[in-house]
Design goal:
The complex is a heterodimer of chains A (about 280) and B (about 300). Chain A has helices at about 5-25, 35, 40-50, 75-85, 120-135, 155-165, 185-190, 195-200, 215-225, 260-270; strands at about 65, 145-150, 170-180, 180, 185, 205-210, 235-240. Chain A has about 280 residues and is of the alpha/beta class. The two termini of chain A are about 25 Å apart. The model of chain A has no long low-confidence stretch (mean pLDDT about 95). Chain B is α/β, with parallel strands linked by helices and about 300 residues long. The chains are: A alpha/beta (about 280), B alpha/beta (about 300).
Amino acid sequence: MNERERTELSETARRMRRHIIRMIGRAASGHPGGSLSAAEILACLYFREMRLDPADPALPDRDRFVLSKGHAAPVLYAALAERGFFPANDLERLRQCDSRLQGHPHRLDTPGVEASTGSLGQGLSMACGMALGLRLSGSAARVFALIGDGESQEGQIWEAAMTAGFRKLDNLCVFLDYNDLQIDGRVSAIKDIAPLRDKWQSFRWRVEEIDGHDFDQIESALAAFAGERERPTLVIARTVKGKGVSFMEDNVAFHGQAPNAQETAQALQELGHDAG
Amino acid sequence: MTLDSLRGAYGQTLLKLGRENPDLVVLDADLAKSTQTQVFAREFPGRFIDMGLAEQDMVSTAAGIALTGKTVFASSFCAFLIGRAFDQVRQSVCYNRANVKLVGTHAGLGVGEDGATHQALEDVALARTLPGLTVIVPADAVETALAVEYAAAAPGPFFIRLTRGSLPTLFPAGHRFEPGRAPLLRDGDAIALVAMGAMVEKALQASELLAARGISAAVVNFSSLQPLDGDTLLRLARKTGHVLTVEDHSVRGGLGGACAEFLAQHHPVPMTLMGMDGRFGRSGKPDDLYAHFQLTAADIAAAGARLLCRP
Protein backbone atom coordinates (compact mmCIF):
# COMPACT_ATOMS: atom_id res chain seq x y z
CA MET A 1 0.00 0.00 0.00
CA ASN A 2 1.54 3.29 -1.01
CA GLU A 3 1.12 6.60 0.76
CA ARG A 4 -1.64 7.79 -1.54
CA GLU A 5 -3.65 4.58 -1.11
CA ARG A 6 -3.20 4.74 2.63
CA THR A 7 -4.47 8.32 2.66
CA GLU A 8 -7.47 7.37 0.55
CA LEU A 9 -8.38 4.46 2.82
CA SER A 10 -7.96 6.66 5.84
CA GLU A 11 -10.31 9.19 4.26
CA THR A 12 -12.82 6.41 3.53
CA ALA A 13 -12.70 5.24 7.15
CA ARG A 14 -13.20 8.84 8.30
CA ARG A 15 -16.26 9.23 6.08
CA MET A 16 -17.61 5.92 7.37
CA ARG A 17 -17.21 7.17 10.94
CA ARG A 18 -19.11 10.33 10.07
CA HIS A 19 -21.91 8.20 8.59
CA ILE A 20 -21.96 6.09 11.75
CA ILE A 21 -22.29 9.09 14.04
CA ARG A 22 -24.86 10.83 11.87
CA MET A 23 -27.11 7.83 11.35
CA ILE A 24 -27.07 6.77 15.00
CA GLY A 25 -27.47 10.35 16.19
CA ARG A 26 -30.42 10.90 13.89
CA ALA A 27 -32.02 7.56 14.86
CA ALA A 28 -31.31 8.37 18.53
CA SER A 29 -30.68 4.66 18.79
CA GLY A 30 -27.91 2.24 17.88
CA HIS A 31 -24.45 0.98 18.82
CA PRO A 32 -21.70 3.51 18.06
CA GLY A 33 -18.77 2.06 20.05
CA GLY A 34 -18.37 -1.28 18.33
CA SER A 35 -19.15 0.25 14.94
CA LEU A 36 -16.39 2.86 15.23
CA SER A 37 -13.85 0.26 16.36
CA ALA A 38 -14.21 -1.70 13.12
CA ALA A 39 -14.06 1.13 10.56
CA GLU A 40 -10.52 0.40 9.31
CA ILE A 41 -11.18 -3.33 9.02
CA LEU A 42 -14.32 -2.84 6.92
CA ALA A 43 -12.71 -0.08 4.86
CA CYS A 44 -9.87 -2.47 3.97
CA LEU A 45 -12.23 -5.33 3.17
CA TYR A 46 -14.73 -3.37 1.11
CA PHE A 47 -12.31 -1.04 -0.67
CA ARG A 48 -9.22 -3.19 -1.23
CA GLU A 49 -9.70 -6.85 -0.53
CA MET A 50 -13.11 -8.19 -1.48
CA ARG A 51 -14.15 -8.99 -5.02
CA LEU A 52 -17.67 -7.71 -5.40
CA ASP A 53 -19.87 -5.72 -7.69
CA PRO A 54 -22.30 -3.21 -6.19
CA ALA A 55 -24.25 -3.32 -9.46
CA ASP A 56 -24.71 -7.07 -9.08
CA PRO A 57 -24.91 -7.90 -5.35
CA ALA A 58 -25.79 -11.53 -6.18
CA LEU A 59 -22.74 -12.23 -8.35
CA PRO A 60 -22.16 -15.99 -7.81
CA ASP A 61 -18.40 -15.85 -7.23
CA ARG A 62 -18.36 -12.71 -5.10
CA ASP A 63 -16.50 -12.69 -1.81
CA ARG A 64 -18.83 -12.69 1.19
CA PHE A 65 -18.74 -10.71 4.40
CA VAL A 66 -20.73 -11.74 7.47
CA LEU A 67 -21.12 -9.31 10.36
CA SER A 68 -21.48 -11.81 13.16
CA LYS A 69 -21.54 -8.99 15.72
CA GLY A 70 -24.71 -7.71 14.10
CA HIS A 71 -25.15 -4.75 16.43
CA ALA A 72 -22.32 -3.05 14.55
CA ALA A 73 -24.71 -2.72 11.60
CA PRO A 74 -23.92 1.01 11.17
CA VAL A 75 -20.31 0.31 10.15
CA LEU A 76 -21.53 -2.25 7.61
CA TYR A 77 -24.17 0.15 6.24
CA ALA A 78 -21.56 2.90 6.04
CA ALA A 79 -19.21 0.65 4.05
CA LEU A 80 -21.99 -0.56 1.73
CA ALA A 81 -23.23 2.97 1.07
CA GLU A 82 -19.72 4.29 0.43
CA ARG A 83 -19.07 1.33 -1.88
CA GLY A 84 -22.23 2.14 -3.83
CA PHE A 85 -24.65 -0.65 -2.87
CA PHE A 86 -27.32 1.93 -2.04
CA PRO A 87 -27.52 5.73 -1.80
CA ALA A 88 -25.91 7.32 1.26
CA ASN A 89 -29.18 9.19 1.82
CA ASP A 90 -30.74 5.90 2.93
CA LEU A 91 -28.49 5.99 6.00
CA GLU A 92 -30.61 8.78 7.42
CA ARG A 93 -33.51 6.35 7.83
CA LEU A 94 -31.61 3.87 10.05
CA ARG A 95 -33.95 2.05 12.44
CA GLN A 96 -37.06 3.83 11.18
CA CYS A 97 -40.23 1.86 10.59
CA ASP A 98 -40.23 2.46 6.83
CA SER A 99 -36.48 1.99 6.36
CA ARG A 100 -34.59 -0.81 4.66
CA LEU A 101 -31.86 -0.43 7.27
CA GLN A 102 -32.88 -2.55 10.23
CA GLY A 103 -31.25 -2.14 13.64
CA HIS A 104 -29.40 -5.37 12.93
CA PRO A 105 -28.50 -6.41 9.37
CA HIS A 106 -31.21 -8.14 7.36
CA ARG A 107 -30.16 -9.59 4.05
CA LEU A 108 -33.67 -9.48 2.58
CA ASP A 109 -33.95 -5.74 3.17
CA THR A 110 -30.53 -4.34 2.34
CA PRO A 111 -28.50 -4.81 -0.86
CA GLY A 112 -25.04 -6.14 -0.05
CA VAL A 113 -25.93 -7.68 3.29
CA GLU A 114 -25.09 -11.37 3.00
CA ALA A 115 -26.58 -12.69 6.23
CA SER A 116 -29.12 -11.52 8.77
CA THR A 117 -27.41 -11.46 12.13
CA GLY A 118 -27.97 -10.10 15.61
CA SER A 119 -28.29 -13.05 17.95
CA LEU A 120 -24.62 -13.47 18.72
CA GLY A 121 -22.56 -16.48 17.72
CA GLN A 122 -24.64 -17.48 14.72
CA GLY A 123 -22.84 -15.42 12.11
CA LEU A 124 -19.61 -17.37 12.41
CA SER A 125 -21.42 -20.66 11.80
CA MET A 126 -23.18 -19.11 8.81
CA ALA A 127 -19.83 -17.90 7.48
CA CYS A 128 -18.46 -21.44 7.87
CA GLY A 129 -21.50 -22.70 5.98
CA MET A 130 -20.83 -20.26 3.16
CA ALA A 131 -17.18 -21.34 3.04
CA LEU A 132 -18.26 -24.99 2.89
CA GLY A 133 -20.88 -24.27 0.22
CA LEU A 134 -18.45 -22.32 -1.94
CA ARG A 135 -15.84 -25.05 -1.63
CA LEU A 136 -18.43 -27.67 -2.64
CA SER A 137 -19.22 -25.57 -5.71
CA GLY A 138 -15.57 -25.26 -6.63
CA SER A 139 -15.75 -21.50 -6.28
CA ALA A 140 -12.63 -19.44 -5.57
CA ALA A 141 -14.71 -16.91 -3.62
CA ARG A 142 -13.69 -16.27 -0.03
CA VAL A 143 -15.65 -15.59 3.13
CA PHE A 144 -14.80 -12.86 5.61
CA ALA A 145 -16.45 -12.34 8.97
CA LEU A 146 -16.23 -10.01 11.93
CA ILE A 147 -16.88 -11.35 15.41
CA GLY A 148 -16.82 -9.53 18.72
CA ASP A 149 -14.81 -10.17 21.85
CA GLY A 150 -17.91 -10.26 24.02
CA GLU A 151 -19.48 -12.49 21.39
CA SER A 152 -16.63 -14.93 21.94
CA GLN A 153 -18.30 -15.88 25.21
CA GLU A 154 -21.04 -17.57 23.18
CA GLY A 155 -20.62 -21.34 23.00
CA GLN A 156 -21.59 -21.38 19.34
CA ILE A 157 -18.44 -19.44 18.44
CA TRP A 158 -16.39 -22.39 19.63
CA GLU A 159 -18.61 -24.94 17.93
CA ALA A 160 -18.04 -23.04 14.70
CA ALA A 161 -14.33 -22.63 15.40
CA MET A 162 -14.07 -26.41 15.78
CA THR A 163 -15.93 -26.96 12.51
CA ALA A 164 -13.78 -24.54 10.52
CA GLY A 165 -10.49 -25.83 11.92
CA PHE A 166 -11.40 -29.47 11.46
CA ARG A 167 -12.81 -28.89 7.97
CA LYS A 168 -9.70 -26.90 6.99
CA LEU A 169 -11.67 -23.92 5.71
CA ASP A 170 -8.75 -22.00 4.26
CA ASN A 171 -11.23 -19.81 2.35
CA LEU A 172 -12.46 -18.29 5.63
CA CYS A 173 -10.88 -15.24 7.27
CA VAL A 174 -12.34 -13.96 10.53
CA PHE A 175 -11.52 -10.70 12.26
CA LEU A 176 -12.02 -10.46 16.01
CA ASP A 177 -12.76 -6.88 17.07
CA TYR A 178 -10.86 -6.96 20.35
CA ASN A 179 -11.82 -3.70 22.06
CA ASP A 180 -12.19 -5.31 25.50
CA LEU A 181 -15.61 -3.79 26.22
CA GLN A 182 -19.06 -5.35 26.30
CA ILE A 183 -22.34 -3.88 27.56
CA ASP A 184 -21.76 -4.68 31.21
CA GLY A 185 -18.11 -3.63 31.32
CA ARG A 186 -14.63 -4.96 30.51
CA VAL A 187 -14.61 -8.30 28.75
CA SER A 188 -11.58 -9.21 30.84
CA ALA A 189 -13.56 -8.54 34.04
CA ILE A 190 -16.89 -10.14 33.09
CA LYS A 191 -15.68 -13.40 31.56
CA ASP A 192 -12.17 -13.16 30.24
CA ILE A 193 -11.67 -14.73 26.82
CA ALA A 194 -7.85 -14.69 27.01
CA PRO A 195 -5.62 -16.36 26.00
CA LEU A 196 -7.06 -16.03 22.53
CA ARG A 197 -4.10 -17.05 20.39
CA ASP A 198 -3.72 -20.35 22.24
CA LYS A 199 -7.41 -21.07 22.08
CA TRP A 200 -7.77 -20.52 18.35
CA GLN A 201 -4.50 -22.22 17.49
CA SER A 202 -5.61 -25.26 19.44
CA PHE A 203 -8.77 -25.23 17.31
CA ARG A 204 -6.42 -25.50 14.28
CA TRP A 205 -6.59 -21.91 13.04
CA ARG A 206 -3.83 -19.69 11.78
CA VAL A 207 -3.77 -16.71 14.14
CA GLU A 208 -2.53 -13.20 13.41
CA GLU A 209 -2.44 -10.41 15.97
CA ILE A 210 -2.57 -6.86 14.73
CA ASP A 211 -3.46 -3.28 15.55
CA GLY A 212 -6.95 -3.16 14.06
CA HIS A 213 -6.64 0.53 13.18
CA ASP A 214 -3.40 0.11 11.19
CA PHE A 215 -4.05 -0.40 7.47
CA ASP A 216 -0.64 -1.90 6.78
CA GLN A 217 -1.11 -4.50 9.49
CA ILE A 218 -4.61 -5.34 8.28
CA GLU A 219 -3.27 -5.75 4.79
CA SER A 220 -0.40 -8.01 5.81
CA ALA A 221 -2.84 -10.18 7.76
CA LEU A 222 -4.96 -10.45 4.60
CA ALA A 223 -1.88 -11.33 2.57
CA ALA A 224 -1.02 -14.11 5.01
CA PHE A 225 -4.59 -15.38 4.70
CA ALA A 226 -4.31 -15.42 0.91
CA GLY A 227 -1.23 -17.63 1.15
CA GLU A 228 -2.72 -20.10 3.62
CA ARG A 229 -3.68 -23.48 2.13
CA GLU A 230 -4.66 -25.52 5.15
CA ARG A 231 -6.25 -23.56 7.97
CA PRO A 232 -8.86 -20.87 8.47
CA THR A 233 -7.43 -17.53 9.55
CA LEU A 234 -8.29 -15.60 12.71
CA VAL A 235 -7.06 -12.03 12.92
CA ILE A 236 -7.09 -10.75 16.48
CA ALA A 237 -7.50 -7.04 15.86
CA ARG A 238 -6.68 -4.91 18.89
CA THR A 239 -9.03 -1.97 18.66
CA VAL A 240 -10.36 0.93 20.69
CA LYS A 241 -14.09 1.00 21.19
CA GLY A 242 -15.52 4.32 19.99
CA LYS A 243 -12.30 5.01 18.05
CA GLY A 244 -12.08 8.47 16.51
CA VAL A 245 -14.42 10.29 18.89
CA SER A 246 -12.60 11.44 22.02
CA PHE A 247 -15.43 11.07 24.51
CA MET A 248 -16.50 7.69 23.11
CA GLU A 249 -13.07 6.08 23.07
CA ASP A 250 -12.82 3.16 25.49
CA ASN A 251 -16.07 4.34 27.07
CA VAL A 252 -18.49 1.52 27.81
CA ALA A 253 -21.41 3.97 27.95
CA PHE A 254 -21.35 4.22 24.16
CA HIS A 255 -21.69 0.51 23.50
CA GLY A 256 -25.39 0.80 22.83
CA GLN A 257 -26.18 4.44 23.51
CA ALA A 258 -26.71 7.03 20.81
CA PRO A 259 -25.05 10.43 21.09
CA ASN A 260 -27.46 13.29 21.81
CA ALA A 261 -27.61 16.30 19.49
CA GLN A 262 -24.74 18.11 21.19
CA GLU A 263 -22.58 14.99 21.34
CA THR A 264 -23.34 14.28 17.69
CA ALA A 265 -22.23 17.77 16.72
CA GLN A 266 -19.04 17.49 18.73
CA ALA A 267 -18.25 14.04 17.33
CA LEU A 268 -18.75 15.26 13.76
CA GLN A 269 -16.52 18.22 14.44
CA GLU A 270 -13.79 15.92 15.70
CA LEU A 271 -14.18 13.72 12.62
CA GLY A 272 -13.73 16.65 10.27
CA HIS A 273 -15.91 18.01 7.52
CA ASP A 274 -17.34 16.20 4.54
CA ALA A 275 -15.02 16.61 1.60
CA GLY A 276 -17.91 17.39 -0.72
CA MET B 1 -51.90 -52.48 6.38
CA THR B 2 -48.14 -52.85 6.32
CA LEU B 3 -45.94 -51.20 8.92
CA ASP B 4 -43.26 -48.95 7.46
CA SER B 5 -40.54 -46.81 8.92
CA LEU B 6 -40.90 -43.07 8.36
CA ARG B 7 -37.19 -42.60 8.98
CA GLY B 8 -36.44 -45.30 6.45
CA ALA B 9 -38.59 -43.50 3.90
CA TYR B 10 -36.70 -40.29 4.67
CA GLY B 11 -33.31 -41.91 4.05
CA GLN B 12 -34.41 -43.56 0.80
CA THR B 13 -35.98 -40.36 -0.47
CA LEU B 14 -32.82 -38.40 0.31
CA LEU B 15 -30.84 -40.93 -1.68
CA LYS B 16 -33.17 -40.58 -4.66
CA LEU B 17 -33.11 -36.78 -4.46
CA GLY B 18 -29.33 -36.82 -4.11
CA ARG B 19 -29.04 -38.69 -7.39
CA GLU B 20 -31.25 -36.15 -9.13
CA ASN B 21 -29.85 -32.97 -7.63
CA PRO B 22 -26.07 -32.42 -7.32
CA ASP B 23 -26.76 -29.30 -5.23
CA LEU B 24 -28.41 -31.26 -2.42
CA VAL B 25 -26.34 -31.27 0.78
CA VAL B 26 -27.16 -33.18 3.97
CA LEU B 27 -26.03 -32.41 7.52
CA ASP B 28 -26.44 -34.40 10.69
CA ALA B 29 -25.30 -34.05 14.28
CA ASP B 30 -23.91 -37.48 15.16
CA LEU B 31 -27.23 -39.26 14.71
CA ALA B 32 -26.93 -40.30 11.07
CA LYS B 33 -27.68 -43.93 11.90
CA SER B 34 -30.80 -42.98 13.84
CA THR B 35 -32.15 -40.33 11.47
CA GLN B 36 -31.21 -42.48 8.44
CA THR B 37 -29.24 -39.74 6.74
CA GLN B 38 -26.46 -42.38 6.64
CA VAL B 39 -28.15 -43.81 3.56
CA PHE B 40 -27.33 -40.57 1.73
CA ALA B 41 -23.92 -40.31 3.39
CA ARG B 42 -22.78 -43.69 2.09
CA GLU B 43 -23.43 -42.80 -1.54
CA PHE B 44 -22.53 -39.09 -1.37
CA PRO B 45 -19.79 -38.69 1.25
CA GLY B 46 -18.71 -35.41 -0.36
CA ARG B 47 -22.14 -33.86 0.12
CA PHE B 48 -22.74 -35.16 3.61
CA ILE B 49 -21.32 -33.33 6.60
CA ASP B 50 -21.46 -34.79 10.07
CA MET B 51 -21.32 -31.71 12.29
CA GLY B 52 -20.73 -33.72 15.43
CA LEU B 53 -22.66 -32.98 18.60
CA ALA B 54 -23.31 -29.34 17.81
CA GLU B 55 -26.90 -28.80 16.75
CA GLN B 56 -26.73 -25.02 17.02
CA ASP B 57 -23.67 -24.89 14.79
CA MET B 58 -25.30 -27.38 12.42
CA VAL B 59 -28.45 -25.31 11.92
CA SER B 60 -26.60 -22.04 11.31
CA THR B 61 -24.06 -23.78 9.07
CA ALA B 62 -26.92 -25.28 7.08
CA ALA B 63 -28.25 -21.76 6.54
CA GLY B 64 -24.83 -20.55 5.40
CA ILE B 65 -24.49 -23.40 2.91
CA ALA B 66 -28.00 -22.73 1.63
CA LEU B 67 -27.16 -19.06 1.07
CA THR B 68 -24.58 -20.18 -1.52
CA GLY B 69 -27.35 -21.76 -3.58
CA LYS B 70 -27.62 -25.27 -2.19
CA THR B 71 -30.64 -27.18 -0.93
CA VAL B 72 -29.70 -28.31 2.57
CA PHE B 73 -31.29 -31.00 4.72
CA ALA B 74 -30.31 -30.97 8.40
CA SER B 75 -31.37 -33.69 10.80
CA SER B 76 -31.30 -34.63 14.44
CA PHE B 77 -33.85 -35.64 17.03
CA CYS B 78 -36.68 -33.09 17.28
CA ALA B 79 -35.74 -32.30 20.88
CA PHE B 80 -32.34 -31.02 19.79
CA LEU B 81 -33.06 -29.81 16.27
CA ILE B 82 -35.93 -27.52 17.25
CA GLY B 83 -35.59 -27.34 21.03
CA ARG B 84 -31.90 -26.81 21.53
CA ALA B 85 -31.31 -24.93 18.29
CA PHE B 86 -34.51 -22.87 18.32
CA ASP B 87 -32.77 -19.50 18.15
CA GLN B 88 -30.70 -20.73 15.21
CA VAL B 89 -33.82 -22.05 13.47
CA ARG B 90 -35.50 -18.72 14.10
CA GLN B 91 -32.73 -16.41 12.97
CA SER B 92 -30.23 -18.28 10.79
CA VAL B 93 -32.87 -20.24 8.90
CA CYS B 94 -36.24 -18.47 9.03
CA TYR B 95 -35.26 -14.80 9.28
CA ASN B 96 -32.73 -15.35 6.49
CA ARG B 97 -35.34 -17.34 4.55
CA ALA B 98 -32.61 -19.90 3.94
CA ASN B 99 -33.39 -22.95 1.82
CA VAL B 100 -32.99 -25.36 4.73
CA LYS B 101 -35.11 -28.45 5.34
CA LEU B 102 -35.07 -29.47 8.98
CA VAL B 103 -36.08 -33.09 9.36
CA GLY B 104 -36.43 -34.10 12.98
CA THR B 105 -36.90 -37.67 14.06
CA HIS B 106 -37.79 -39.34 17.37
CA ALA B 107 -40.70 -37.00 18.06
CA GLY B 108 -42.92 -37.30 21.10
CA LEU B 109 -43.62 -40.22 23.41
CA GLY B 110 -42.92 -42.53 20.48
CA VAL B 111 -39.23 -42.25 21.42
CA GLY B 112 -40.05 -44.72 24.18
CA GLU B 113 -37.39 -45.97 26.57
CA ASP B 114 -34.98 -43.01 26.32
CA GLY B 115 -37.52 -41.00 28.27
CA ALA B 116 -38.49 -37.38 28.76
CA THR B 117 -35.17 -35.75 27.78
CA HIS B 118 -35.45 -37.13 24.26
CA GLN B 119 -39.21 -36.89 23.79
CA ALA B 120 -39.91 -33.57 22.09
CA LEU B 121 -43.43 -32.52 23.06
CA GLU B 122 -43.16 -28.82 22.23
CA ASP B 123 -41.32 -28.74 18.90
CA VAL B 124 -44.43 -28.18 16.78
CA ALA B 125 -45.57 -25.38 19.08
CA LEU B 126 -42.19 -23.70 18.72
CA ALA B 127 -41.91 -24.27 14.99
CA ARG B 128 -45.33 -23.02 13.98
CA THR B 129 -44.72 -19.61 15.54
CA LEU B 130 -41.94 -18.96 13.04
CA PRO B 131 -42.81 -16.90 9.96
CA GLY B 132 -42.22 -18.70 6.68
CA LEU B 133 -41.53 -22.12 8.20
CA THR B 134 -43.67 -24.86 6.68
CA VAL B 135 -44.38 -27.47 9.38
CA ILE B 136 -45.33 -31.02 8.37
CA VAL B 137 -46.04 -34.05 10.57
CA PRO B 138 -46.45 -37.05 8.26
CA ALA B 139 -48.65 -39.94 9.31
CA ASP B 140 -46.96 -42.72 7.36
CA ALA B 141 -43.98 -43.61 5.18
CA VAL B 142 -45.70 -42.63 1.94
CA GLU B 143 -46.56 -39.19 3.21
CA THR B 144 -43.03 -38.84 4.59
CA ALA B 145 -41.47 -39.52 1.20
CA LEU B 146 -43.86 -37.11 -0.50
CA ALA B 147 -43.27 -34.38 2.07
CA VAL B 148 -39.49 -34.72 1.74
CA GLU B 149 -39.72 -34.57 -2.04
CA TYR B 150 -42.03 -31.58 -1.86
CA ALA B 151 -39.71 -29.76 0.54
CA ALA B 152 -36.68 -30.41 -1.65
CA ALA B 153 -38.42 -28.85 -4.63
CA ALA B 154 -40.02 -25.89 -2.83
CA PRO B 155 -37.96 -22.83 -1.87
CA GLY B 156 -37.61 -21.83 1.76
CA PRO B 157 -37.54 -23.38 5.23
CA PHE B 158 -39.36 -26.58 6.17
CA PHE B 159 -39.65 -28.59 9.37
CA ILE B 160 -40.72 -32.21 8.95
CA ARG B 161 -41.42 -34.09 12.19
CA LEU B 162 -41.00 -37.86 12.15
CA THR B 163 -41.79 -40.45 14.74
CA ARG B 164 -39.24 -43.08 15.71
CA GLY B 165 -41.30 -46.21 15.22
CA SER B 166 -42.94 -47.67 12.14
CA LEU B 167 -46.54 -46.78 11.37
CA PRO B 168 -49.21 -48.49 9.27
CA THR B 169 -49.15 -47.24 5.70
CA LEU B 170 -52.37 -45.32 5.15
CA PHE B 171 -51.83 -43.79 1.76
CA PRO B 172 -51.43 -45.34 -1.70
CA ALA B 173 -48.28 -44.67 -3.68
CA GLY B 174 -50.15 -42.15 -5.86
CA HIS B 175 -51.24 -40.05 -2.87
CA ARG B 176 -51.13 -36.31 -3.46
CA PHE B 177 -49.34 -34.31 -0.78
CA GLU B 178 -49.57 -30.57 -0.48
CA PRO B 179 -48.90 -28.31 2.53
CA GLY B 180 -52.11 -26.73 3.77
CA ARG B 181 -54.22 -29.63 2.56
CA ALA B 182 -55.54 -32.06 5.18
CA PRO B 183 -56.78 -35.33 3.65
CA LEU B 184 -60.03 -36.68 5.01
CA LEU B 185 -59.54 -40.37 5.83
CA ARG B 186 -63.08 -41.12 6.87
CA ASP B 187 -66.23 -39.07 6.61
CA GLY B 188 -68.65 -38.69 9.47
CA ASP B 189 -71.25 -36.25 10.76
CA ALA B 190 -71.32 -36.40 14.58
CA ILE B 191 -67.74 -35.55 15.50
CA ALA B 192 -64.44 -34.76 13.77
CA LEU B 193 -61.31 -36.54 14.96
CA VAL B 194 -58.39 -34.36 13.93
CA ALA B 195 -55.06 -36.14 14.31
CA MET B 196 -51.41 -35.87 13.38
CA GLY B 197 -48.48 -38.26 13.12
CA ALA B 198 -48.63 -41.46 15.13
CA MET B 199 -52.09 -40.59 16.43
CA VAL B 200 -53.76 -40.81 13.01
CA GLU B 201 -54.02 -44.60 13.02
CA LYS B 202 -55.33 -44.48 16.59
CA ALA B 203 -57.97 -41.96 15.56
CA LEU B 204 -59.01 -44.30 12.74
CA GLN B 205 -59.34 -47.16 15.24
CA ALA B 206 -61.29 -44.88 17.55
CA SER B 207 -63.70 -44.07 14.73
CA GLU B 208 -64.41 -47.82 14.40
CA LEU B 209 -65.10 -48.06 18.11
CA LEU B 210 -67.43 -45.07 17.89
CA ALA B 211 -69.16 -46.51 14.82
CA ALA B 212 -69.88 -49.65 16.81
CA ARG B 213 -71.74 -47.41 19.23
CA GLY B 214 -73.64 -45.70 16.46
CA ILE B 215 -71.53 -42.56 16.45
CA SER B 216 -70.38 -41.33 13.05
CA ALA B 217 -66.89 -39.85 13.34
CA ALA B 218 -64.91 -38.14 10.59
CA VAL B 219 -61.13 -38.61 10.70
CA VAL B 220 -58.75 -36.16 9.15
CA ASN B 221 -54.95 -36.36 8.85
CA PHE B 222 -53.81 -32.90 9.85
CA SER B 223 -50.22 -33.31 8.74
CA SER B 224 -49.76 -29.70 7.72
CA LEU B 225 -49.49 -27.53 10.84
CA GLN B 226 -48.25 -24.50 8.96
CA PRO B 227 -49.99 -23.61 6.75
CA LEU B 228 -53.14 -24.94 8.43
CA ASP B 229 -56.00 -26.28 6.30
CA GLY B 230 -58.58 -23.87 7.67
CA ASP B 231 -61.15 -24.74 4.99
CA THR B 232 -61.27 -28.40 5.93
CA LEU B 233 -61.37 -27.57 9.64
CA LEU B 234 -64.19 -25.11 9.13
CA ARG B 235 -66.18 -27.51 6.97
CA LEU B 236 -65.84 -30.31 9.53
CA ALA B 237 -66.71 -28.03 12.45
CA ARG B 238 -69.81 -26.81 10.66
CA LYS B 239 -70.83 -30.29 9.68
CA THR B 240 -70.20 -32.13 12.96
CA GLY B 241 -70.30 -29.38 15.57
CA HIS B 242 -67.73 -31.26 17.68
CA VAL B 243 -63.97 -31.36 17.19
CA LEU B 244 -61.53 -33.64 19.00
CA THR B 245 -57.83 -33.19 18.32
CA VAL B 246 -55.23 -35.79 19.24
CA GLU B 247 -51.45 -35.57 19.05
CA ASP B 248 -48.25 -37.06 20.43
CA HIS B 249 -47.21 -33.58 21.53
CA SER B 250 -48.30 -30.90 23.98
CA VAL B 251 -51.82 -29.66 23.27
CA ARG B 252 -50.55 -26.21 24.24
CA GLY B 253 -49.53 -24.67 20.97
CA GLY B 254 -49.61 -27.98 19.16
CA LEU B 255 -52.29 -29.39 16.88
CA GLY B 256 -54.96 -28.81 19.52
CA GLY B 257 -53.84 -25.26 20.15
CA ALA B 258 -53.64 -24.54 16.42
CA CYS B 259 -57.17 -25.83 15.75
CA ALA B 260 -58.57 -24.05 18.81
CA GLU B 261 -56.98 -20.76 17.72
CA PHE B 262 -58.55 -21.10 14.31
CA LEU B 263 -62.01 -22.26 15.36
CA ALA B 264 -62.27 -19.73 18.20
CA GLN B 265 -62.05 -17.02 15.58
CA HIS B 266 -64.07 -18.58 12.78
CA HIS B 267 -66.56 -21.09 14.11
CA PRO B 268 -66.39 -21.92 17.82
CA VAL B 269 -67.57 -25.44 18.64
CA PRO B 270 -67.11 -27.66 21.69
CA MET B 271 -63.63 -29.22 21.54
CA THR B 272 -61.54 -31.79 23.34
CA LEU B 273 -57.78 -31.48 23.03
CA MET B 274 -56.01 -34.80 23.56
CA GLY B 275 -52.26 -35.03 23.93
CA MET B 276 -49.78 -34.06 26.57
CA ASP B 277 -50.84 -31.21 28.79
CA GLY B 278 -48.32 -29.72 31.19
CA ARG B 279 -46.41 -32.94 31.74
CA PHE B 280 -43.09 -34.40 30.70
CA GLY B 281 -42.98 -37.86 29.21
CA ARG B 282 -41.19 -40.81 30.82
CA SER B 283 -39.42 -44.04 29.95
CA GLY B 284 -41.38 -47.02 28.71
CA LYS B 285 -42.45 -48.86 25.61
CA PRO B 286 -44.35 -46.47 23.32
CA ASP B 287 -47.60 -48.43 23.60
CA ASP B 288 -47.29 -48.52 27.39
CA LEU B 289 -46.69 -44.78 27.39
CA TYR B 290 -49.69 -44.10 25.18
CA ALA B 291 -51.77 -46.16 27.61
CA HIS B 292 -50.24 -44.40 30.61
CA PHE B 293 -51.01 -40.96 29.19
CA GLN B 294 -54.44 -42.04 27.92
CA LEU B 295 -53.74 -41.78 24.23
CA THR B 296 -55.02 -45.14 23.02
CA ALA B 297 -57.80 -45.66 20.48
CA ALA B 298 -60.13 -46.59 23.36
CA ASP B 299 -59.22 -43.37 25.18
CA ILE B 300 -59.93 -41.34 22.06
CA ALA B 301 -63.28 -43.06 21.52
CA ALA B 302 -64.26 -42.51 25.15
CA ALA B 303 -63.28 -38.84 25.02
CA GLY B 304 -65.23 -38.43 21.79
CA ALA B 305 -68.32 -39.94 23.37
CA ARG B 306 -67.94 -37.65 26.39
CA LEU B 307 -67.65 -34.63 24.12
CA LEU B 308 -70.99 -35.65 22.58
CA CYS B 309 -72.44 -36.17 26.07
CA ARG B 310 -72.98 -39.83 25.19
CA PRO B 311 -70.56 -41.55 27.56
